[in-house]
Write a structure and sequence with these properties.
This protein is α/β, with parallel strands linked by helices and 314 residues long. It has helices spanning 2-25, 34-44, 67-75, 91-96, 106-109, 149-166, 171-196, 212-218, 236-248, 262-269, 292-313, and strands at 29-31, 51-52, 78-81, 102-105, 204-206, 222-225, 253-256, 275-278.
């Protein structure tokens, strides 16, 4: 009996003595949005937990920094974000509050993998994305880069590398986590590719051009967007235009996003052959943590599949 208690006691004591030290010594990492937070959390597993800024159903567009966010930024060792085109709310605070932190700006480190914004034909201009006014630093690219698992693999690699520099003691752990995560991401990509292959050719429309990287990864046939300001209901004329577009393009499904009322979508497709679905590029309802990236992409694929197969196939 005593033999068993001793190691237990030791584990307990060592654990309770070491735990505060480990927590204290973990780098303080702040991440802007949930899918990226999930990847960073995966890299940090066993060392510490990154803090998430834009939580729940909140949108990075038009997000307002809270006092607790400002505190987190001013204490951070590392801040991971996409870039000013997506999280315009971070632009100023990063220059002031986040001055002492290292930054991992994904549009910078993945600059050679960015896709240009689609503006012609049936792709309507983004109404909510910050333009790179004046500074000339950022081209006109689509900032929703996390929706391609192959880019997620790169995000994981960049995160592990920078964390290893900031916190060399845990470098082997970051590397090990990154390797495991990258293998899972590669497997996810292969799975989604096989899953989505049968619906590749079917035309669909989205509410805003957030899925370009996902489409490119799986060769999907998104043919346009219906940009709608979630704050304002479209007028009768606008709805007429949208119906025309749906008919013209022979659209199978119109996908909205969680912040839109289902009734609005029903009004838009009235009198057309299109069905409806919902896609969520951020994972509003998902609990934050390493698994939410996988849940987000699986849900995206499942919802797309359901909408594109339509009622005829079910
Ligand atoms: Zn967007």
């Amino acid at each position: 009996m005593r033999k068993k208690i001793l190691p237990l006691l030791c584990t307990f004591l060592c654990g309770s003595l070491l735990l505060p030290a480990i927590v204290w010594s973990a780098p303080r990492v702040v991440v802007s949005i949930k899918p990226i937070h999930a990847l960073v959390a995966g890299v940090m597993q066993g060392v510490g937990e990154p803090q998430l800024l834009v939580k729940g159903g909140a949108s990075p567009h038009g997000y307002v920094l809270r006092p607790s966010d400002a505190r987190a930024l001013s204490r951070a060792d590392l801040i991971v974000w996409v870039g000013p085109q997506l999280e315009s709310f971070l632009k100023k605070p990063l220059a002031t509050l986040g001055k002492r932190a290292r930054q991992l700006q994904l549009t910078k480190v993945l600059a050679d993998r960015l896709l240009p914004l689609r503006k012609s034909g049936s792709w309507e201009e983004h109404q909510h994305h910050e333009r790179a006014d004046g500074d000339g630093e950022h081209g006109e690219f689509n900032p929703h880069l996390w929706l391609d698992p192959r880019l997620a693999e790169q995000i994981v690699a960049k995160t592990a590398a920078i964390l290893g520099e900031i916190d060399p003691v845990h470098r082997p752990q970051y590397q090990q986590n990154a390797t495991r995560l990258q293998a899972r991401l590669a497997a996810l990509h292969a799975r989604l590719k096989a899953k989505l292959a049968p619906v590749k050719h079917i035309p669909f429309i989205v509410f805003h051009d957030a899925y370009q990287y996902f489409e490119a990864a799986y060769g999907l046939n998104a043919i346009g967007s219906i940009s709608i300001d979630p704050e304002r209901k479209p007028g009768a004329r606008r709805i007429r235009q949208m119906r025309q577009k749906i008919k013209q393009l022979n659209v199978r499904c119109v996908f909205s996003e969680p912040q839109f009322e289902p009734r609005l979508l029903a009004t838009i497709i009235e009198g057309t052959d299109a069905g409806t679905g919902v896609l969520d590029p951020l994972g509003a309802d998902l609990p934050a943590g390493p698994e939410s990236y996988f849940q987000l992409l699986n849900a995206l694929a499942d919802n797309l599949l359901a909408g594109l197969r339509g009622p005829a196939a079910s």
